[in-house]
Amino acid sequence: MAGFVLKLKTKSGQMVVKGLNSKSTIADLKTTLSSLTNIKENCLHVLSGFPPKPLNLSPDEASLETCKITSGDTLIVEEKEPPIESVSFSTSLQEEARHHIITDQFASPGILMKKVVPADNSCLFTSLGFVLGGKVDLTCASFMRQIIAEVVATEIDNYSEAILGKPNTEYCQWILKPDSWGGAIELAVLSNFYGLEIAVVDTLNAIINRFGEDQNFAQRVFLMFDGIHYDPLYLEPLEGGSIQTIFLASDQRVLNEAYDIAKEAKSSRQFTDVDKFTLRCMVCSVFLTGQIQAQQHAKESGHMNFGEIK
């Protein structure tokens, strides 16, 4: 079993895991991850695959091979509150459980940069896939759309027609279509599903909208939004090495840098005013002004391919 290696991404950086093999158990994996990350075993939350999905860490005796974990795979390790039965009912202990971030591990010195992803109506999902998995993969959108549809369909009270702008069933059918754009509702669902805060740098208004901010998530990722299109942000270390896409939610320095990006982008007009921008339908060549006209034209004609006219 020599040569069995796993890549590990944590809030403090990336590392390589050795010493395991395909016959190692989930218990062995948890022990190893806990030792490397200083996260208690019952607080481990592990994502694997692409797009990343939560890994079932039970039963302990299951082998990595059985769980389809192979050499070369990348695991994203987060810290979450332990199950309620393992937390004391003492108020002070409950507060400790909520503030479980290791505060002495922050992003290394570097520059926040934008990774441009395709403008194909799935840019939100592609961007989130990049900050989770470290690469641009256009196949992750369908998985994320499915997750959103399932959550919305099962939480009817939380996702009424008043919230969705259309009947629950109609929305679920709509979001599964590859030409449907994602926005605030989808970001909120995905923030909760992945257990991390999604900070959206809005260059039109020079603000940051933080989805999951009230959930006390340990980690944060950054997306940039120009009024129409989403791109992911990542940290390029000044001293070289691997980029960083997942940050401590308590890292105010990186958050301040993101605010600076928002203000700079607005001042240099790196945004699209969705009420005034001019589009041309690439199917029938008709010219349209603003998002509302484009949506109406798409509804009436079925045309979904638009190009912005500068």
From TrEMBL:
Q: Which InterPro entries does this UniProt record tie to the protein?
A: OTU1_Ubl, OTU_dom, Papain-like_cys_pep_sf, Ubiquitin-like_domsf, Znf-C2H2_OTU1-like_C
Among PROSITE patterns, the record links this protein to: OTU
Q: What is its EC number?
A: 3.4.19.12
Which biological process annotations from GO are given for this protein? endoplasmic reticulum unfolded protein response; ERAD pathway; protein deubiquitination
Catalysis performed (reactions) = Thiol-dependent hydrolysis of ester, thioester, amide, peptide and isopeptide bonds formed by the C-terminal Gly of ubiquitin (a 76-residue protein attached to proteins as an intracellular targeting signal)
Can you say where in the cell this protein is located?
Answer: Cytoplasm
What PANTHER family is this protein classified in?
A: HIV-INDUCED PROTEIN-7-LIKE PROTEASE (PTHR13312), UBIQUITIN THIOESTERASE OTU1 (PTHR13312:SF0)
Q: What does this protein do?
A: Hydrolase that can remove conjugated ubiquitin from proteins and may therefore play an important regulatory role at the level of protein turnover by preventing degradation.
Q: What is this protein called?
A: Ubiquitin thioesterase OTU
Q: Which organism is it from?
A: Timema genevievae (Walking stick)
